[in-house]
Every structure is written in C-alpha cells, then in structure tokens.
Amino acid sequence: MSKTLPTQAQAVIIGGGSIGCNLAYHLTKLGMSDVIVLERDKLTSGTTWHAAGEIVPAILGSEWECELYTYGRNLIAGLEAETGQATGFRQPGYIQPADTPERLEEMRRGAAFMNRFGIEVHEISPAEAAERFPIGDFSNTLAAFWYPLEGRTNPVDTTMALAKGARSRGARIFEETSAEEILTRNGRAVGVRTSRGDIAAEHVVIAAGMWSREIGARAGVNLPLQAAEHYYLITEPLEGITRDLPLLEDPHSWAYFREETGGLLIGLFEPNAAPWHIDTIPPDFSFGEIDPDWDRVTPHLETAFKRVPAAANAGLRKLFCGPESFTPDLAPLVGEAPALQNCWVAAGLNSLGILNGPGIGMALAHWIVDGRCPVDHTGFNADRFADGSHNTPAFRRARTPELLAKSFGAHFPNESFKTARGLKQSVLHDRLKAAGACFSESHGWEQPDWFAPTPQQARIEAYSWGRQNWWDWHAEEHRAAREDAIVMDMSSMAKFLVEGRDACALLNRLSCNEIDVAPGRVVYTAWVNEAGGFEADLTVTRLEDRKFLVVVGENSHGHTETWMRRHTGPDACVTITDVTPGITQINLHGPRAREVLGKVSEADLSNEAFPFMSARHIDVGFFEVLALRVTYVGELGWELHVPAIHAVQVYDLLIEAGRDHGIRNAGMQTLASLRLEKAYRDFGVDVDNTDNPIEAGLGFAVKLDKPGGFIGRDALAAIKAAGVPNKRMLQFLLDDPVPLLHGNELIYLNGREVGHIQVGAYGHTLGGAVGIGFADAGAPLTAAIVEAGHWEIGVAGVRVKATAALKPLLDPAMARIRG
C-alpha cells in the first residue's frame, strides 16, 4: 500500500474489487497513468473475494453482452502471461441442459446468435451431456448445449493480476482508505474526501459494489441497487469428480455446479431470494458471511440435488451465504452520472462482476478517455433511471426477491417483471383494465400489451416462443388499425417543454434535421454524438417561436433529458421541463380516424388545414388538447396530448365516437407489429449509439447543409461521402407465414451470414413475420443486390426464405399516412 496520499489525480476510483481494478487496469492501458484506487479495507474485500468465478455466458441476448463477455474471457485468459500473477484461469467447458420444448427453442435461438459473436456453442444429445458430466441426471433432457471454450478463474488472484497490471503503468492503490464524500462544484465532481484527506480529481468513479447506492446518494446520484443473499454449498470429495469436470448450469433448478477441491460446488439463484440490508449496507462488512437460512434454502438445494443425485448423500463441507448486488432491471449501472458531470459509475453487475468486469472496465475507460462508449450503452447506461422511483426501500424490498431467479431461468419475448408493479400508471389505467387490457411493464410504466374481450380473460395462460393465447385478439387490434381505427394510451412517452431565447439554437445544435421551422411544424430527427452514432430519435414540435415540445420513447427518458442538459451552455437562456406526468398521450390512428375525431371536434381536420407533420391546439368536446398529426404505425392519425385532468373524459368521448367506426383499444404488441410493417426505427431497440442514421436508412432526416451544422455533422458527412455503405438496415418478411421473429435471428445473403434481426413481430397485413436488421455484405449493399439476392433468416436453427427491402414493404409511397 502506498503511504502518502496525493492531493490530486486525473481519476479517483472508489472501490478496490473486480470492477475498480478492471477500470484502473484499462484507464492506464489507454495512457491515463495518474489513477488512484481507494479501497476502504483490502482489495477484493466486498463481494469479489467470495465470487464463484465462473466465466460462462448462459444465453446472451444482445450485442453488447456478447462483446463484453468475449473481451473479458480473452483478457483473463492472457492476464497471467501479461502480469506474471497467477489467475487460476481454466477452460473445462460448460454445459446447459434443455428439459422442455420452450427452453430448447430459447437455447437454439440463443446459440445461433452467440456463435455469430465468437461464443462457440454446440447442441449435443443428453447422452453426450452425461458423458461430459457423468454425475448429472439428464434423463428428462431433450438436448443440451456445449460451450467448449468457457471455464472459471480465481476471483481474488484475477483481481490481484489486474491491480498489478494497473500499478505497472502508474496507478496507485490505497487500501484502508475510505471515501467519505464526493466533492462537487457547479454540478461537477471535483474530487473525493477520504478518511486520510482530500484528493482533487478530474474524474471520480463510483465502483464500490453494494455500497455504491449510498455513496451516490450522498452526492445526489440515483443508483437503484440492492444487495441480496447468494448461496452456494460445497460438498466433501465425490467419486467421479476431477478438475476437468465441465461447469453445469441448470436453469430448471436455478442452480449451477462445478468442481471444488474434489467436491462439488452448488450455487443457487433461487426464486424468492432474500434482500440484505434494505436500509444501509454495514460500512465495516469485510470478508464477511451471512448466517444461512437453512429453512428457506433447503427446498432449493433439494431441487438442485435432482440434477446431481450423488450430491444429496455427500458430506457437507460448507454452506456459504454472502451478499451480491442487483439492479431493478438486471442490467449494470455504467456511465456518467446524470446529475453530476465527471462522476462516473461502474456498479450493479448482478453477480457477474468477474465475468463482465473486464468488458465494463474497457468500455468505461474509453468512455472517460475518448468521450464515447465503444459499445451499445442503451441497455446499461446509468442515466436510464429518470427518477428515484426504482430506488425507494419499498420498491427494492418488493423487486429484489424476483431478480436472482429472473437472471437465471427461462426467458420469453413478452415476459415482464411480476413484482413491484404499478410504479407508473396512466390516469387511463382503470379504464383500460376494464376494457380487457393485459399489462406489461417498461421502465416502470404499466402499458397495455394486448386486450382481451373481457377483463377475466386478460391473462397469459402460458409463456411461449410461439403463438400464445392472446394471438387472435392482438391480430384483431392490428386489423382495426389498418381497416378502421384504434386508440392507444401512449402516456409513457417522455415529453419535455424546451423554452427560452436559446431553445431553438440548442435543439438545432442537437438535431440532424432542421428545427428552425414555422410554429406548428413537427420534425422527426435523430440526435447523434461526434462520431455520428445515435443518442436519440424523436420528434421536436415548434409550438411557438421560443417554445418546443420534445417527445421520445420511455426507454430514452433519462438519457434524452441528460443529453439536453449536458449540451446547454452555462449562459444559455433555456428552460427544460419534464411534463410527462401531467400529459396523457392518446393516439388515434386508422383510415377512419378523421371520422372519429371529427365527431367530437369542430376543428378542420382536412389535409389542407391539418397536414401531415403539423400540430395544432384543437377542441375535443369541452376540452382543448394539443394534436400532432404524426404516426408510428403507418396510418392516418393524431397524437393527442391531453392534460391529465381531462384524459378520462377525452378517452371516453373517442371510444363512444368510434363505436360505429370499428374502433378498438390497441396495445404494445400491436404497436410493434404495425411499426415493423412500416420499418420504423426505435432507438435503444434496433438502433443504438454505435449505429448511424445513414446506414440506418434515415438519411432523409439529416440536413448536412443546414446553417450552423449540428453535433456529429462532420462524421455523418464523411459517411455519406463514402458512397453506398456496406452495412445497411433492411426490412425482412418471411415467405413462410408460420415461423415467428423475435430478434437476434441470423440473416443470410446467398448462403452467407451477413447480420442479424434486431427486432421482429408478426405482420398481419403483410401475411408473415417481419423484422428489421443490419446486413453487412462486405461491399456496397446496393438496391440491386438487395432486390436480386437470395435472402434467408435462421429461426431456431432452420433457414427460412425471406424478402428483403430497403424501403417499407407496406405503403412505401406513404399514401395511407397522408390520406
């Protein structure tokens, strides 16, 4: 341990576990040598020391997860040779069994996707699984999946190797030095007050594991994070167990198994897990254990023993219980804190700190040094939690018991969290529930997913990768949108009023499209970073000369607000107000939408008086609402922005006015199927910060010649000047009407893998599953190649012929929208 505490540094990292040491290692690798790590006790003393150390990927469902995982596995594999510090890394391989048809479907889809990103996965028979893991019971297994390159490492030794590598490049590590307070000035972190004195710093990083929530709170940083009990049992030596025994992960019993000094380690990610210290994490907890709750955990161990029966009769060496921290959505908290510039976060690894630590360290180091994250950050950016509602003690107490099993068990395309629901509800919630809504959850919002004929039928009978019990009702909603009219509660959309002398200048600097338009115009635009990568896609409506409305999806609420505020200069005259809670957004769409709205409004709704992409205040019954003539479903229609105090009345008027016009309520499943038939993009779902509008087919909304330019203008100009890109986003329609697309299915051009589907749904109008995804042909992907190519999509191991298009397959001329 260094003895003299410096008074300043480029970066101070709070936390000396796997994440803090990974970040120090990577910052110094990028040339930032003046790095300090503060550890309140000894390195690894929080949760790193008792981590199991598996390097196994389970089923990874996103590009960023695959990228971070493979980077970390490869780094750890070479860390001992680089640093001279033993890590204990071994690659005995890894097995996952599939005992049900649904799990087999999930595994087959996931295996294809992971193979694409360098994670080698093979489907094997139950007999082959038993041959590799002879003490396992695979009598009920349909198939298993073998990962030959995966394995395990020693968490303490690996962290020490990272620390050694960081020290060799100038980093200094101070043990027994606690961070008492993050020092701030004018909305920026400027240093850390420690138990041994103050350190001024250009960057401060919270990487303190389960203590991160409280450290952040003292600086006004919202980090929803909760520790939970995590168990593993170690048996006495068992016959047939060798060091070469593969790791076995069994989602059917929420357990994992591996060799441990001749015995078996059985780890649990059980249902109904126990939160640990909702109020505050003990500051002196170090290399500690939690007294195990035998009564609670014994039934879960008995379930695990069914997979490895020999373990039930083995001698018990140890039942260990230690804390691990989890986030409300099971994604890490990484990035710059939205409330405090130059304060960075690397926490909430959801018991995967050893596995994902190197990747997170690499990504955040580049973010700090280069100013941009090199991987898709939309799923883990710490600014995704727009407020503190996910961080109350009651919410953490309710949500945490679900998290362990949720991270480990089977997953389905439309599955939501079951606990801590009702966080954010539209004022229309009760009306929609009475109308038969089955609700899903997104970023805390209760959203109608689909509507049943009666409230009693609004339930999912069985989750599946195929057609579920609500399929036909959803299809009827879809057809109503294309043939009659639908009404949708879109209150979850984030809405910001941006006002003031410099409001137009700010939004024009952020926007690729031209925002300096006449009042009453709606503008669709992307916001990009200096490299041309998306940071948002949204609409900006000019209400008055100095007043604008910004509308963006609920998944981008926090990031959009942060992006605006970060780019508002200290002398700018701009006010940004989040008006989401006060506005109920009711969307009315369909070829008969004008007839319906015309029954309750005296406004002139004709194309001449109210053209597409325009906005007006109109009357609806007794009430004045802001109406935007825009669409995300590809039909004539309006977004009605209604003050919450009038929303129920306006909704009732529209439903009554539409009874003779076939009006139906519609949910998120129908929104997805409608928008994908029109190939509309969605930031955070199918485009992210590593994609750009040119390759995504949104060049029409990029005004490279607008006065003053915009952030990222030069990067996009260079991309466009390079000509037809090799990588382009296409729309796909399966020729066979039976298979379904959910996302991550592989794309083949003339027999060669060229990409994967980002998101899919069923196009009830087009007559088959539809999806959008990037294809990279390795050469300019021209319209002629797209049209003449033989396209296929891999669905759970089966290639299905598909039609590909650069333009929407439904209504490319936009006649329906302008009707």
TrEMBL record:
<keyword id="KW-0560">Oxidoreductase</keyword>
<feature type="domain" description="Aminomethyltransferase C-terminal">
    <location>
        <begin position="727"/>
        <end position="811"/>
    </location>
</feature>
<comment type="similarity">
    <text>Belongs to the GcvT family.</text>
</comment>
<dbReference type="InterPro" id="IPR006076">
    <property type="entry name" value="FAD-dep_OxRdtase"/>
</dbReference>
<dbReference type="InterPro" id="IPR027266">
    <property type="entry name" value="TrmE/GcvT-like"/>
</dbReference>
<dbReference type="InterPro" id="IPR028896">
    <property type="entry name" value="GcvT/YgfZ/DmdA"/>
</dbReference>
<dbReference type="Pfam" id="PF16350">
    <property type="entry name" value="FAO_M"/>
</dbReference>
<feature type="domain" description="FAD dependent oxidoreductase">
    <location>
        <begin position="11"/>
        <end position="367"/>
    </location>
</feature>
<protein>
    <submittedName>
        <fullName>Dehydrogenase</fullName>
    </submittedName>
</protein>
<dbReference type="Pfam" id="PF08669">
    <property type="entry name" value="GCV_T_C"/>
</dbReference>
<dbReference type="InterPro" id="IPR029043">
    <property type="entry name" value="GcvT/YgfZ_C"/>
</dbReference>
<feature type="domain" description="GCVT N-terminal">
    <location>
        <begin position="428"/>
        <end position="706"/>
    </location>
</feature>
<dbReference type="InterPro" id="IPR013977">
    <property type="entry name" value="GcvT_C"/>
</dbReference>
<dbReference type="InterPro" id="IPR006222">
    <property type="entry name" value="GCVT_N"/>
</dbReference>
<dbReference type="InterPro" id="IPR036188">
    <property type="entry name" value="FAD/NAD-bd_sf"/>
</dbReference>
<dbReference type="Pfam" id="PF01571">
    <property type="entry name" value="GCV_T"/>
</dbReference>
<dbReference type="Pfam" id="PF01266">
    <property type="entry name" value="DAO"/>
</dbReference>
<feature type="domain" description="FAD dependent oxidoreductase central">
    <location>
        <begin position="370"/>
        <end position="426"/>
    </location>
</feature>
<dbReference type="InterPro" id="IPR032503">
    <property type="entry name" value="FAO_M"/>
</dbReference>
